[in-house]
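WARN no homologs supplied; continuing
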Amino acid sequence: MDAEQLLTRLYSDEGRQDPYPCYAGLHALGPITALPSRPEHRAVAAVAVGYDLVDEVLRDPEWYKQPPPDWAEQEILRTLQTSMMFVNPPDHGRMRRVFAGAFTPRRLGTLEPVILRVAGELLDRMAEAGSSAVDFVTDFAYPLPARVMAEFIGIPETDLSWYRERVDRIDEYLDVAGKTPQRLTAANTAAAELRAFYADLLAHRRRTPGEDLISGLVGAVDTGGVELTDDELISNLIVLFNASFVTTVYMFSNGLPLLLAHPQVAAALPGDPGLTGRSVDEILRLEAPVHFLARAAPRDSVLGGIQIARDQNVLLVIAAANRDPSRFPDPDRFDPHRSGPPSLAFGIGPHYCLGAAVSRLEGRLALPRLLSRFPRMRIDEPPTYSGSLFLRGIDKLLVSTGREEQR
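OK structure emitted
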């Protein structure tokens, strides 16, 4: 199959459930493949799956994110395009500097007891189910990063259920198959409700500051310590929270089946921090939560021998780059001992995910405790995937914990 046929198959229901055969087909065509110039491709000139090419473009600050033409007219697009995840330099650097100060080693150190406390509470609840099956996503993979990030940012835990409904509507719109009028309307409503939610929260923190991220940012904005408007602050908080916990949910839900399929690795994690860290990295390489990004050429360019006109986009399939056989021998095999370049699961370069360190920390701390508490955990039913390619992961995973061995 050619690249156009492979992308058509990838965007089908079957392809979204299991995209990896399509990625292997794209690799067989080369690290980058031009797409025919047709209206349905819009401004996408090529698809890149080679690790080195994807890495090169993501590191180059001149390759930019191209906003939709009507972004200012849609609440969801306006929110995204006024956040550091989607904005281009120089505004990107201005916004990122404000938030980068929150993800310091000292701040991460204060999160460790929070992660351990929340993980312990969730494991206790799972143990209460006894021999009954539990949904690992509902009972662990979702609430752990959601509660940790909520406490870190300053979102009341009681609001998380309400918050998740809005996040789901936005994620449904962001998928390649999600650009329908109905999903756009739902995402616009969700964005408007989240903006109102954060506006109220900022006003409350101004009256009653705490130790959370929002209190610190509001104080810095009000004293002129940072160049950020309230409108930009709200956009960034919405995107930061979504990006920081949804990817971690899928790291856990995608990762557990991999670990249970390799019982020697699963059994060794509780006593081997080094292996745990490598396993988290290998989960992220093999089952990246975010599958693709796009970048537009700053000028007429040649990328991997392909002509890219100025302002045309290249689709960067990072989940395929993470399985590039030229960089990762036997790329579809789970191997926490493998050597090679770092995973691109959190991107690289100027837009590298700020929450990556938090996500990895949660994995390193929580997975060994999960497997120590339930060494005989097993999967009861085939997992249910999101059906999305922008954020691909397991949304439902029924497991039995087995007999509780130890606390």
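The chain has a mean pLDDT of 92.
OK
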